[in-house]
Amino acid sequence: MRTFNHSSMVPDPARPASYVDKFLWRKIFDHNPFFATACDKLASKAYALSACPELVSAKVLWSGLDAREIPAELLAGNVVVKANHGCRWNMMIRNGAVDKARLLRRTSRWMRSRYGRKFGEWGYKGAVRRILVEEMLLEEGQPIRLEYKFHVSNGTTAYVYAARRDEDGNEQKCHFDRDGTYAPPPAGSGKQWVRIDLPASFLHMRKIAETLTAPFDHMRCDFYEKDGEIFFSEFSVYPLSGKGIINTRLRDLCGETWDLRRSWFLSTPQRGWRRLYAAALHRWLDTLSGKPI
Fold first, then answer.
1. What contacts 132, CB < 8 A, 6 or more positions away?
2. Is the dihedral of CA 187, 242, 154, 236 positive or negative?
3. Phi, psi dihedrals of residue 144, rounded to the nearest 5°
4. Which among 16, 142, 197, 246 is placed 20 to 30 Å from 284, CA to CA?
């Protein structure tokens, strides 16, 4: 398993203190069965809509094992074809403009592959392999381009990441503190970092994110907003594969507020050497309680 770190520090997954260490530790040790739900698009939708009935989500128009079985009329409109068991495995189809041969090649490759194996993202192993066709969320005739990503530790938002794609498909980015205060990027971060306005529904969105992520010690929860209505997008168990973010202040804040004692591994009885390690790690974490990491 390979991992990457934005800092020059050598990772220490046995005694994880930093944000990056904690994600590496999660990959190795914390195999929470609920991560499979979070990594499964259909299952995570069902969980989110059940936990927060006021939420909506893009409608799933079809799901199956073979893209050749997708009804032709669905591909004649504006839809997104996705893999249920992966991240960024999707194809946007606008006004029926689809290369069916390319669609079949890509979906066939998705169905043969297990996402996350390369970087040890264990949770995807339990996601059901399926192809989905979802309605495309449109705003003024164009796909919604702005997504809000809440990084929540122990039921409290640590920071918010907003991502917007321009007309050429280039991503523009922005960070906010929990209260919605703009968090400027470090100098020289690049032109993709711009100030993005938060919607009027921001506080309600934050409340929903914290409700949905309550079962987890740390989770990212993503939304779209359209005409004041909040659309659940997805969870991310391993955002950026745990590499960390360019804003070191927010990254460190997220690491400090993430209490591993609330993780599945440390709150569930373990066996054998895992039990001994869990007890030792718990004692070490207790010595850090209330101290800056």
1. 41, 42, 60, 62, 63, 81, 82, 83, 84
2. positive
3. -55, 130
4. 246
Q: Are 89 and 83 in contact (CB under 8 A)?
A: yes
Tokens matching residue 87: 């991240």
> What is the rounded CA–CA span in Å between residue 204 and residue 196?
18
DSSP 6: S
CB neighbourhood size of 20 (10 A) = 24
Cα distances (Å, whole numbers) of residue 268 to 8, 261, 286? 33, 10, 17
Taking the model in full, what pTM does it have? 0.90
pLDDT in tens, 256-291: 889 999 999 999 999 999 999 999 999 999 988 655
Residue 285 DSSP class: H
Which pair of tokens denotes residue 288?
Answer: 């850090």
